[in-house]
Every structure is written in structure tokens, then in C-alpha cells.
């Protein structure tokens, strides 16, 4: 989590107010000299002066020139400390929210990149493989049962490319020329618009002859 920090003089103002609230300096008591406070806080007298001015502005102390700094109110010292904690907590919460937003932006950028990469890959796949697969299920009327794809020469004769064969629950993806066609197989193929009809005529030539006789 991102840490919040405040100026040194504000920290010293809080520390002095805390000492007043705890009773180390009672109402009407004079604070230590500026140089002594600077030494105890390991800082410069100017930083202490700015811290004391803050406490005077909120009514915790009174600066009497030529005399020193005197405590006016313990209650206002407590209020000042509480306000400081509230502001600090708010700043810490805001810092945490900003960090969360930053992480979400990074995650969104990563997600956007992944989506763009997927879109590019999809386009590449489409242009390399632009046809929607079609299918043909082999039944006992098929004349090519027991014949290999290599012997059928489907691509040369129909322009169709068999990309997979489903046999039962198993798939033979990118089958080679030695793949044998059996009853119940489903052939998945791609090709031009007229490739399907040509492939079906190769697999079931008798159906074509029956249609010709009917005509």
C-alpha cells in the first residue's frame, strides 16, 4: 500500500499537542524554548516555529512575544490530535483507493491487450482457414467403406479437404492418406461451395444414378 507522509513541522505540531493532551504541559504552562524544542525534535528552530504557529491558529497555545509560548487549552489539543488522525486516515484511504484504481487500470490494459491478441489470432486463423467445416456421416449405402482417403483422392476429385474423422467417440484430426472409412464414421471437411456435392457423389455414386434414372 502506498504510504502517506506529512511535512516535518506538522508532525512536530502533533507531537507537541499530544504532550499537552497527556498533561506534560498544563494550561497556562510555558513550553520549552524554541531552541530546546528544536534540539529535542532534532530539527531547526524555524521548523519548530511553524509547528507552534499551527497550534496557535487552532487555539492550543498562545505566543506572547518577548515572553514565550503558553498552553491555552488541553481540550483543543485533543481535538487537534483527533482531527489529525481523521485527516491522516482519509489520506491513507484515498491513497489506497488510488493504488487500487491504478492496479485495475493495469489489469484492464492487460485484459485489453489479451483481447486484441485474441482478435489478431482469430483473424489469422480465419484467413488461413476461411471455410466452415461441413460433415458427412457414412452409412451402409456408402460405396467407399473400407477404402483409404489416399485411394479416394477426395481433394483432387472434389476440392474438399477432410480435416477430421469421428469414429465413435474418438476424433482423428488431420487424418493421413492411410485413414480407412468405416460405417458410422463422420467426415469433417472444408472446401468451396460445390465441393460438398462432389464429395457426396464420390461417397454415394448410386444415389446420383438413382436420381438420373428418376429423371
TrEMBL record:
Coiled-coil ranges per UniProt: 94-121
Top-rank taxon: Bacteria
Residue span(s) of domain RCK C-terminal: 121-205
One of the GO biological process terms: potassium ion transport
CDD domains: WHTH_GntR
The protein's name: GntR family transcriptional regulator
One term of GO molecular function: DNA-binding transcription factor activity
UniProtKB keywords: Coiled coil, DNA-binding, Transcription, Transcription regulation
Alphabetical list of InterPro entries matching this protein: Bact_HTH_transcr_reg, RCK_C, RCK_C_sf, Tscrpt_reg_HTH_GntR, WH-like_DNA-bd_sf, WH_DNA-bd_sf
Domain HTH gntR-type, residue spans: 6-74
Cited SUPFAM superfamilies: TrkA C-terminal domain-like, Winged helix' DNA-binding domain
Amino acid at each position: 500500500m502506498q504510504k502517506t507522509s506529512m511535512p516535518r513541522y506538522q508532525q512536530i505540531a502533533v507531537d507537541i499537542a499530544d504532550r499537552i493532551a497527556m498533561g506534560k504541559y498544563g494550561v497556562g504552562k510555558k513550553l520549552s524554548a524554541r531552541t530546546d524544542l528544536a534540539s529535542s525534535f532534532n530539527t531547526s528552530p524555524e521548523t519548530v516555529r511553524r509547528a507552534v504557529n499551527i497550534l496557535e491558529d487552532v487555539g492550543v497555545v498562545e505566543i506572547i512575544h518577548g515572553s514565550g509560548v503558553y498552553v491555552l487549552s488541553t481540550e483543543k489539543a485533543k481535538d487537534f490530535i483527533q482531527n489529525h488522525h481523521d485527516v491522516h486516515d482519509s489520506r491513507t484511504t484515498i491513497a489506497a483507493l488510488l493504488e487500487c484504481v491504478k492496479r485495475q487500470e493495469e489489469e484492464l490494459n492487460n485484459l485489453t491487450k489479451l483481447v486484441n491478441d485474441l482478435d489478431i489470432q482469430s483473424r489469422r486463423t480465419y484467413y488461413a482457414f476461411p471455410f466452415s467445416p461441413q460433415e458427412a456421416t457414412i452409412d451402409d449405402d456408402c460405396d467407399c467403406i473400407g477404402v483409404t482417403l489416399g485411394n479416394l483422392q477426395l481433394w483432387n476429385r472434389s476440392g474438399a479437404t477432410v480435416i477430421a474423422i469421428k469414429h465413435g467417440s474418438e476424433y482423428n484430426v488431420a487424418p493421413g492418406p492411410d485413414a480407412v472409412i468405416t460405417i458410422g464414421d463422420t467426415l469433417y471437411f472444408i472446401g468451396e461451395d460445390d465441393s460438398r456435392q462432389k464429395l457426396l457423389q464420390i461417397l454415394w455414386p448410386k444415389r446420383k444414378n438413382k436420381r438420373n434414372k428418376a429423371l
